[in-house]
Design goal:
Blueprint: H1 11-60, H2 62-69, H3 72-77, H4 82-85, E1 99-101, E2 104-105, E3 111-113, E4 121-122, E5 128-129, E6 143-151, E7 164-172, E8 190-193
Antiparallel strand pairs: 1-6, 2-3, 4-5, 6-7, 7-8
Length: 197
């Protein structure tokens, strides 16, 4: 009688192969996850750098800055706006420790960015969006800029525009699914004196 050849894999060989396959799969999955996180973080940083650059370019443009500080809405929100203008009207305004918030107009006198809107912000491509959510975050509109000015005068009148400091501070708030991205928006803040533009 002829014996059949029953050669095959032993249980130990199957378990070893399964373990090795599991380790390789886990390593591969971790690598894919890490690359996805790095890509998301890079996209976020690139978009926020673009938002910062766009906002800074508009604010530093002389015509845009003129329209911004002479904007009737900014004037209504900031009674001490004469401090920022550096005009003779500043002599009649108490500028010492004066501060306020500004919306930013571009050279065409259009609103480029409205700080007074709690929902206006920037998306991950650096473009303006209108659904920033400070409470819950928003994956599609995670960044908000707060544009403020403050007078650093030692006494009144505060006629020198270099005594007025304009600051832009960024706030980053995204949805829970995106929280694992390490990002510090303070690295993108900037300031300048109102005499700079």
């Amino acid at each position: 009688m002829k014996r059949l050849n029953n050669k095959g894999f032993s249980l130990l060989q199957v378990l070893t192969a399964t373990t090795v396959l599991g380790i390789v799969s886990a390593t591969l999955m971790a690598s894919i996850f890490e690359k996805a996180q790095f890509k998301a973080m890079s996209k976020t940083k690139t978009g926020i750098a673009a938002a910062r650059s766009n906002l800074q370019n508009v604010m530093m443009h002389n015509v845009s800055w003129y329209y911004t500080i002479y904007d009737p809405v900014n004037e209504a929100q900031n009674p001490e706006i004469a401090c920022v203008r550096g005009t003779a009207a500043a002599f009649n305004v108490n500028c010492h420790n004066a501060t306020g918030t500004l919306r930013v107009l571009d050279a065409s006198q259009n609103v480029f960015y409205n700080t007074f809107s709690a929902t206006q912000g920037f998306d991950k491509d650096g473009l303006i969006c209108n659904n920033f959510d400070a409470g819950n975050g928003n994956f599609n509109c995670p960044l908000r800029a707060i544009v403020t000015w403050s007078a650093n005068c030692t006494s009144d009148p505060c006629y020198n525009p270099s005594d007025i400091i304009v600051e832009v501070k960024f706030e980053y708030k995204t949805s829970d699914s995106d929280r694992k991205i390490a990002f510090n928006p303070a690295n993108y803040n900037f300031a300048f004196s109102s005499s700079t533009p």
